[in-house]
Design a protein that fits this description.
With about 675 residues, this protein is α/β, with parallel strands linked by helices. Helix content is about 35%, strand content about 20%. It has an 8-stranded mixed beta sheet, sandwiched between helices. Strands 5-4-17-16-18-19-20 form a 7-stranded mixed beta sheet, with helices on both faces. Strands 22-21-23-25-26 form a 5-stranded antiparallel beta sheet, with no helix packed on it. Helix 5 packs across helix 7 (about 170-180), helix 5 (about 105-115) packs across helix 12 and helix 6 crosses helix 7 (about 170-180). The chain binds 5'-O-[(S)-ethoxy(hydroxy)phosphoryl]adenosine.
Amino acid sequence: MWPLPGARASRCLLGSLRRAAPPPPPSPPRRAKCNLTAYMPEAGGFEEVRSPSQLQRFSVSSGERFWAAAARHRLSWISDFHTVQDCDLARGRIKWFDGGKLNVSVNCLDRHVHANPEKVALVWEKDEPGSEVKVTYGELLEMTCRLGNLLRRRGVKKGDNVTIYMPPCPLAVASMLACARIGATHNVVFAGFSAEALGERIRDAQSCAVITANQGVRGGRLIELKKTVDAAVSSCPQVRNVLVAMRTENPVEFTHKDVDMEEEMRAEEVVCEPEAMDSEDPLFLLYTSGSTGKPKALVHTQAGYLLYAALTHRYVFGYHDGDVFGCVADIGWITGHSYIVYGPLANGSTTVLFESTPVYPDPGRYWETVQRLKINQFYGAPTAIRLLLKYGDEWVQKYDRSSLKTLGSVGEPINTEAWEWYHNVVGDGRCPVVDTWWQTETGGICISPRPSDPDAEILPGMAMRPFFGINPVLMDMAGNKLTSNNISGALCISQPWPGMARTIHNDHQRFIETYFQPFPGHYFTGDGAYRSEKGYYQITGRLDDVINVSGHRIGTAEIEDVLNQCPAVAESAVIGFSHDIKGQAVFAFVVLKESVEASQADVTRELSGSVTKKIAKYACPDHIQFVQRLPKTRSGKIMRRVLRKVVERDPGGLGDLSTMEDPTVIQDIIQGHRDLLEVNQRERQ
Ligand code: WTA
């Protein structure tokens, strides 16, 4: 039942689709061939730019000309824009391509169906190796149109929001594109989030419909998606319909809100009139963690986001027409949005949807997939690379990786050992490794070794160079711009770019305060960075209370909120600590109420269970240390800096404790930490 049976067979339907599709976009004017036009056709008109290496500087100094040319060349418009940009960062006003109208799904589908409906758009790499499903552009358009019609018939209108709670699969992509087609916004929630976390996001986004599957399949295990959705939706009265696709044969109970999605799609028309959307109409919401207890939904809009995703996909990875692009992220994160769905599809690529895990059925899975699907660009997370390198080189060398041209890394710092292994073993030393720095907020990659002169050096573990139109600056904490090299500071971006988020859903004030007030006039990333002697950027980590567990962002305050709600807990403090595989892991210090009689082991189990239930499994503390008191300043602020030093076993680095209310607290905590490590070690033996 997955994807729609018969979709492949219905050539007549594809025929009618072909007729229904809009005319192809005008081809760009031909220019004299030179190095630059071969490299980036839309840059051919910039007379003052002589070489690809000058282009980055030009894209910053003449941003409007650069982005206007790129937007007209790369996107298909219903009507042209009249203003390239209208931005005032200090006020959080960001507008690109005003006056323009377009439809994102037409850009991702119809124009490629025109060129070649049989071209494979998606390769769904299902959990079981060797059972991949290919979906052509023609088929994906058909699925999207049927689903768009179904959503419309079920009352979803332009401006409504739809939550998608699905693992990577063709119907998830069709769901995103169907929303885009009818002008609804989507809110994809990572299918590992708990019912409570999902419910909170559905309510905050005011979704009128939810799309899910009966079950998920990952690493040979079944995941009860529909049951989680049922539990979430029970507290979301505004949800009118839950569309359920069947990933497995196992039946699930249907309630009065539920719709058998594939059954109803079959009855729908295969032509679905696309909405003409303004450049700045919202395209999607995506929740991420910040430094408060409440996750926030970043809002991305139509034209600027799509252009930025498409351009970065093409130039950062050296994508060429005909390549197979393999991003193994989940569609529930921004990486999946920009580099599984929107970037690759806007460029008419063949993009892989990876449903499994790096170690299923064995640690050769990624490379067996590369061999079988002939993947040209592989994009993954350092946490997986670190895990795989522990299994040894044989798992890689067993498979033919000669198709690979570029290797990408995303989501967290990649340490030198993992980088070298990725480069030398996976890439046989012949593929550039692009360590890409960016965020949910930035929409697409902002700092990465490429594009640049293809012969330019790439250093291990460094994101290195700004992308076109990106102007990074480092600031000191007093707000002064640091102009020299060989220096560290707060990483800001001093000019707007089309891919940046436009607001936080329902909280524009929080958007301004978080990103534009710390360094007025600049976008503040929340990360620190080092600029080397040669001017290359290296990300040094978050400057706020956000930690990064296996590439997943989580606010320490979010976890503390959950712990503090447990009846046994008086208060808690959560910090991140270095972990050899996950990058960072969660450490919780917990003060119990005096009346608690349960054993610490029981409370530990209860607390872990609560975090899993209220957030997700990845947010669970690796260690919980029970303490009598937390170190606090005289004004009552928890001194997490001190706790970090304890966990790093660096008591010498505790620094100035003069502001601490009662410095004796710390000795107890250090002793308690030693005891905890001993107990853990004994348990492991
Ligand atoms: C971190 C993921 C070091 C960073 C695309 C950022 C990185 C946060 C890198 C965003 C990198 C992302 N090197 N750190 N190459 N890429 N980060 O929103 O702290 O899930 O602020 O977006 O991940 O995480 P998000």
